[in-house]
Specification:
The chain is built from 6 helices and 3 strands. It has 132 residues and is mainly alpha-helical.
């Protein structure tokens, strides 16, 4: 077995756990944050667009979006095709976004503090090479 993968998976779990800790004060988890960030970046999206972009199973996205909707972070938007489910950030989410981003920036600095800018770029390049 290639020793790269256990280290890669362990680091991924550690990063996700630290991210969840940073998001705790906002009542969010990393999967929820990922969808909120995507909607903030791209505007309203269909559930299909979200799961295809994130490369996640459709039921997982549906459950996460439903939970975000219950919590008041996301709302459904009228679509031209009534069968298509479009979601967008609520005003609550938009107003809370700067606070969440500030927490994320602290998290990111903590995770990357041991890496120089050059090392971060090198890591990004290497990870992109793994895209299959």
């Amino acid at each position: 077995m290639n020793p790269l993968f256990p280290v890669f998976f362990q680091k991924n779990r550690q990063i996700v756990n630290h991210l969840n800790e940073a998001l705790k004060e906002h009542g969010l988890f990393h999967a929820q944050w990922t969808i909120l960030y995507l909607l903030q970046k791209n505007g309203p999206m269909s559930l299909t667009e979200i799961w295809k972009y994130l490369d996640v199973e459709a039921p997982t996205v549906t459950r996460t979006v439903s939970r975000l909707q219950t919590l008041g972070w996301i709302e459904r938007v009228e679509a031209t095709d009534k069968r298509e489910k479009i979601v967008a950030l609520t005003q609550h989410a938009i107003s809370q976004f700067p606070k969440i981003e500030a927490s994320i920036e602290v998290f990111e600095r903590n995770v990357t503090q041991q890496l120089s800018q050059q090392e971060q770029q090198q890591l990004m390049t290497l990870l992109k090479k793994l895209e299959g």
